[in-house]
Amino acid sequence: MAVKQTQEERQTGIIELIIENGVTRVEELSEHFDVSAMTLYRDLAALEARQIITRNKGAISLLAASISETPFEFRQRQEMDAKLAVGRAAAKIVDRYSTVFVDDSTTAYNVIDHIQDPGSKAFITNSLASARKIADSEHKSMTVVGGRLVRQLDAMFGPTTTRTVRELAFETAIFGTASIKDGTIFHPYSEVASFKSELIKRVDVPILVATGSKFDRVALHRIADVADFKYLVVDDSVSAATFKDISSLTQVIIADR
């Protein structure tokens, strides 16, 4: 007998299925998840209210082009084991430094919980989600970089954000990415890519954190080369061939789940 899914698990599965197939219909989803049409209509209404999907004459498609463009709360639930492992490993590097920038990515967000002595750190972030988490911890200080709020990412971007970063000094920064391809990292949003590219220039020890799935994805806008980072922390799902390639570009740390 199949294990019954929770509403959250089912809605996550619906999004992943639409991403995989492009467009789907209620009948197909009902058969796939073995639930009634009424249950699915409730799930779809919830996802539509969160501006993740759209419905048109029975066809259901994703408003976002990829998982990287879906809301922060949804992305945070993806690959949780891998992100926690990467967070633990990256935190060991961060522990060496006193000033830390945390970017808007959900993988970077998972580093915060594993920093040994947050009370000794001065945090800087443009991520509202990370700011809320840091505010709940014992921290030396926190600077939230302002700008235009991008609701999908729960973070600030734009000229004000970039200008503020240019006036700050910090030792290390934790970067996430939507895509790693041929030794280069990418993001679907141009203003995010531009901001992260500028941020890399301002930090002494940039740390790239990623899950193995990022090597299979494609995004449009270039941020930087993997070689621009001091460290790349990735979970143990990365293939041996990929590990060999990226190890020639920077210091790679494999995080065991």
SS-based class:
alpha/beta
Mean pLDDT: 88
Largest sheet: 7 strands, parallel
Percent of residues in beta strands? 25-35%
Distance N to C terminus: 29 Å
Query: Strand arrangement, largest sheet?
Result: 6-5-4-9-12-14-15
The gyration radius over C-alpha positions equals 19 Å
Low-confidence stretches: none
Shape: globular
Helix run count: 10
Helicity range of the residues?
25-40%
Strand/helix succession: HEHHEEHHEHEHEEEHEEEHEEEHE
Topology, number of strands: 15
Q: What's this entry about, in short?
A:
Helix content is about 40%, strand content about 25%.
Model description:
- With 257 residues, this protein is an alpha/beta fold.
- The strands form four sheets. Strands 6-5-4-9-12-14-15 form a seven-stranded parallel β-sheet, with helices on both faces. A three-stranded antiparallel β-sheet has the order 1-3-2.
- The protein starts with 6 loop residues before the first helix and ends with a strand.
List the helices and strands and how they pair.
Elements: H1 7-21, E1 23-25, H2 26-33, H3 37-49, E2 53-56, E3 59-62, H4 72-76, H5 80-94, E4 99-102, H6 106-109, E5 122-125, H7 128-135, E6 141-144, E7 148-150, E8 155-157, H8 159-166, E9 170-175, E10 179-181, E11 184-187, H9 190-202, E12 203-210, E13 221-225, E14 231-235, H10 240-247, E15 251-255
Parallel strand pairs: 4-5, 4-9, 5-6, 9-12, 12-14, 14-15
Antiparallel strand pairs: 1-3, 2-3, 7-8, 10-11, 11-13
Helix pairs in contact: 8-9
